[in-house]
TrEMBL record:
Organism this protein belongs to: Butyricicoccus pullicaecorum 1.2
Presence of keyword Hydrolase: yes
PANTHER family from the UniProt entry: 6-PHOSPHO-BETA-GLUCOSIDASE, GLYCOSYL HYDROLASE
Protein name per the record: 6-phospho-beta-glucosidase
Molecular function in Gene Ontology: beta-glucosidase activity
Coiled-coil portions: none
Gene Ontology CC terms, in alphabetical order: cytosol
Keywords, comma-separated and alphabetical: Glycosidase, Hydrolase
Length: 479
């Protein structure tokens, strides 16, 4: 058997994409709550003032807040060993700067955790997953301000203390390296420079100084959170979470090879070097200087980073790209840049499908950091259709996941220490990049549509039964 007997099979969601109940039980507004729905890169907007008669998908999402027991029971039926979910920061601290947490929010997640434990499912909790409290955006433009470190630690202290003895695995920031791209300033860091006018989601004016200063504050906050977690409960294990964007030189032209090296440093190594090695990499100084960024690093920060390295590394993997020094138009859907690989097919949304890139990613990260790894997002967004007989035959998803699991197993044979696998959107939810229901990832179909129709009923897809078999055989039967 290739995978360890305690391998953590499961699935992943995010609060802002599945919970709904955006203004109930004391919850405050998060940045995700002011994002409208829309087609990728076009009509999805940020509206600092909530607009009437406008579709905000996070307001209702898939009603997981009210239906989590039903959903977790379905996860248990598949055989989940692990459920990765996030806590909505604004449920615990509605504006982000309160002294005391919201008891209703703490109680809700305790119920979710207890429901997981009832079925023997290990909770894997993301502390901040693309939903900074909007109150902190308005107060200090979120992670631009160093004050955010204390607000974040206050939040961490509340949840680390409340869930002691029930949770083992935590992740500090979802896809922290998304802030290496302009879109990350809003989604990940809550930075919004115009609080008066709607802004196109992918076209917010970019200020690299703010993004990278924000990342520094996040690095310090993450390192202090790791130390705090270990002090509160020595059994806590805290990981980072990054996007791994596999990238290859488009040609063997040395300039393309250098362009690819720069891309990997910018997106795959910059953040993870700090969180896993405890210091900025040597290439950071020139990279930041060339972007016109000068970090404000306070006395003691270097020591904090050194003493707060993560216990394990997690990442999302969806696609790969190619890099070139030539001026060639990029591929649709590749949100981190690059050009299409002529050797690979693409999904309905233009994301190139590259299973072997996952093996490459696992080996690359393990060779560089030597820490246990976990793939906490991977999956295929597709337009699923309910057949006349009520069945949902998503063989394309099964094929995608099968190929990626096969390559995951090859990486383990290569010597990689792999803890688990939680495919993204184990149940259909709202897409973060497009605000659509139509872009479906789940093993479970949610009968809700972009025109506002649908009753939120849960339906099992063909992949539900396939993944059930995969888990039961610990990845041995992938047919």
């Amino acid at each position: 058997m290739v995978l360890s007997k305690d391998f953590l099979w499961g699935g992943a969601t995010a609060a802002n994409q599945c919970e709904g109940a955006w203004d109930r039980d004391g919850k405050g507004i998060s940045v995700s709550d002011i994002c409208t729905g829309g087609k990728f890169g076009q009509s999805k907007r940020i509206t600092p003032v909530l607009e009437p008669d406008t579709f905000y998908p996070s307001r209702e999402a898939i009603q997981h807040y009210d239906r989590f027991r039903e959903d977790i029971a379905l996860f248990a039926e598949m055989g989940f060993k692990c459920y990765r979910f996030s806590i909505a920061w604004a449920r615990i601290f509605p504006n982000g700067d309160e002294a005391q947490p919201n008891e209703a929010g703490l109680r809700h997640y305790e119920e979710v955790i207890d429901e997981c434990l009832k079925y023997g499912i290990e909770p894997l909790i993301t502390i901040s997953h693309y939903e900074v409290p909007f109150g902190l955006t308005k107060k200090c433009n979120a992670w631009v301000s160093r004050d955010m470190i204390d607000y974040f630690l206050n939040y961490c202290r509340a949840i680390f203390t409340r869930y002691k003895g029930k949770v083992k695995y935590w992740l500090t920031f979802n896809e922290i390296n998304s802030a290496s791209a302009p879109m990350g300033a809003l989604l990940n860091q809550g930075i919004l420079n115009d609080l008066e006018h709607p802004t196109e989601f992918m076209n917010q004016p970019d200020i690299p100084q703010q993004r990278y200063q924000g990342l520094h504050h996040m690095f310090v906050a993450s390192a202090l959170a790791v130390q705090m977690a270990h002090e509160i409960d020595p059994n806590y294990r805290v990981g980072n979470m990054m996007i791994y964007s596999a990238s290859y030189p488009l040609t063997c032209d040395p300039d393309d090879v250098l362009a690819c090296q720069h891309y990997n440093r910018l997106y795959n190594y910059y953040c993870t070097d700090v969180q896993a090695r405890g210091a900025y990499p040597a290439f950071a100084a020139r990279m930041l200087e060339e972007m016109g960024v000068k970090l404000d690093v306070q006395p003691g920060d270097a020591e904090i980073l050194k003493n707060g390295t993560v216990d394990f590394i997690t990442f999302s993997y969806y696609m790969s790209s190619c890099q070139t020094a030539k001026d060639i138009k990029g591929g649709e859907g590749n949100i981190l840049g690059g050009v299409p690989n002529p050797n690979l097919p693409s999904s309905d949304w233009g994301w190139q499908i590259d299973p072997k890139g996952l093996r490459y990613a696992l080996n690359d990260l393990y060779d560089r950091y030597g820490l246990p790894l976990m793939v906490v997002e991977n999956g295929l967004g597709a337009k699923d259709v309910i057949g006349a007989d009520g069945s949902i035959n998503d063989d394309y998803r099964i094929d995608y996941l099968r190929q990626h699991i096969e390559q995951m197993k090859e990486a383990v044979k290569d010597g990689v220490d792999l803890m688990g696998y939680t495919p993204w959107g184990c149940i259909d939810l709202v897409s973060a990049s497009t605000g659509e229901y139509a872009k479906r990832y789940g093993f479970i179909y949610v009968r809700r549509y972009d025109d506002g129709t649908g009753d939120f009923a849960r339906l099992k897809k063909k992949s539900f039964y396939w993944y059930q078999k995969v888990i039961k055989t610990n990845g041995e039967d992938l047919a």
